[in-house]
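A.,

Following up on our hallway conversation. Structure tokens first:
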């Protein structure tokens, strides 16, 4: 059982324990924030407090708990990709990449070593077998659903995965924690930051991580969608699609980042209407419900975690997918994930391409 020390994975552990599973708790140490040079106290899933919270529940219930140090493999892959994506003018999605390439692999490897049949996490999602494939679907609590970040998990991993939170609403989980004597856990603030950037300052992280980056990229131009220079910026890696409060204006209408060109060190700005796109392409596609998507299939597509989704027609474009939205969508950012749904079922996903 992957235990971060938060309420969701803690209560998932307790639910499985009460259902009669033999649970072994495992807390993954993915990052040591002190090494990044940040100035905020370490919080979230890698902090000592969180590790102790996870261990306390395991001790209370009488099942084993261990800490797994995966900082080296996490850092080499996830951190390097995070930095490389911003330098390439894209907006990375490290949580999806970590689920796909690090956490599930690490959990299954240790599960095999310990003789465990299944692995479990505290994600608000569901998984089932259908027609010989393993299908992820949305969690019952639509406000907490986390299926979006699971599109990259492989079939052989899903076959052995349990999501105890999938059939619960968050308010019921909090009440369950209180009823079982974990009131402090129920009142604990949730962390929404990237685990290795708990101060949520990704720009500062990039500056500390890439020596000389600020000097190299500062002084580039803000340009309009027509190509007119309207000001200078601090460096293209420090901007994301859809960002506002840029220090430049196009007049009365709010101004947004609508494009990033790393080769020219330019950031294109425009209006809210300029931010809307009707077409995008998706690469590195993983298929869940079906082995492939037939041309012309109509699906709901989410382009970010909190996006409600928009209906689109999907066609194959070689190894990639072409997504034609029925209505224009704001803030399509290359590097972010596209999750493709049929009803509540996650049928595939991939990374949004830059074209």
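Then the amino acids I'd put at each of the 355 positions:
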């Amino acid at each position: 059982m992957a235990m971060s020390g938060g309420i969701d994975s803690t209560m998932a552990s307790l639910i499985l324990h009460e259902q009669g599973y033999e649970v072994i708790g495992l807390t993954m140490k993915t990052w040591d924030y002190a090494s990044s040079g940040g100035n905020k106290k370490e919080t979230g899933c890698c902090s000592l407090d969180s590790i102790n919270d996870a261990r306390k529940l395991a001790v209370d219930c009488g099942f084993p708990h261990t800490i797994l140090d995966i900082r080296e493999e996490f850092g080499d892959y996830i951190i390097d990709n995070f930095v490389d994506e911003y330098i390439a003018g894209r907006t990375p999605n490290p949580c999806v990449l970590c689920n796909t390439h690090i956490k599930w692999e690490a959990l299954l490897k240790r599960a095999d070593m310990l003789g465990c049949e299944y692995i479990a996490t505290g994600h608000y999602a569901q998984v089932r077998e259908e027609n010989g494939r393993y299908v992820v679907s949305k969690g019952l609590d639509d406000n907490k659903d986390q299926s979006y970040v699971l599109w990259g998990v492989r079939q052989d991993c899903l076959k052995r995965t349990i999501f105890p939170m999938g059939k619960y609403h968050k308010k019921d989980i909090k009440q369950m924690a209180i009823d079982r004597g974990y009131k402090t856990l129920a009142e604990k603030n949730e962390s929404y930051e990237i685990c290795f950037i708990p101060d949520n300052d990704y720009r500062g992280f990039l500056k500390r991580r890439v020596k000389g980056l600020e000097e190299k990229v500062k002084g580039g131009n803000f340009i309009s969608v027509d190509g007119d220079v309207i000001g200078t910026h601090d460096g293209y890696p420090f901007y994301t699609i859809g960002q506002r409060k840029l220090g430049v204006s196009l007049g009365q209408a709010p101004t947004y980042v609508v494009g990033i060109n790393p080769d020219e060190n330019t950031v294109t700005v425009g209006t809210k209407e300029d931010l809307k796109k009707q077409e995008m392409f998706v690469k590195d596609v993983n298929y869940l419900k079906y082995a492939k998507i037939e041309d012309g299939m109509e699906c709901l597509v989410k382009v970010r975690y909190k996006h409600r989704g928009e209906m689109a027609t999907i066609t194959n474009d070689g190894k990639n997918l072409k997504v034609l939205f029925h209505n224009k969508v704001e803030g399509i950012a290359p590097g972010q994930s596209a999750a493709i749904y049929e009803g509540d079922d996650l049928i595939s996903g991939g990374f949004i391409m830059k074209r």
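The mean pLDDT is 91. Curious whether your intuition agrees with the design.

B.
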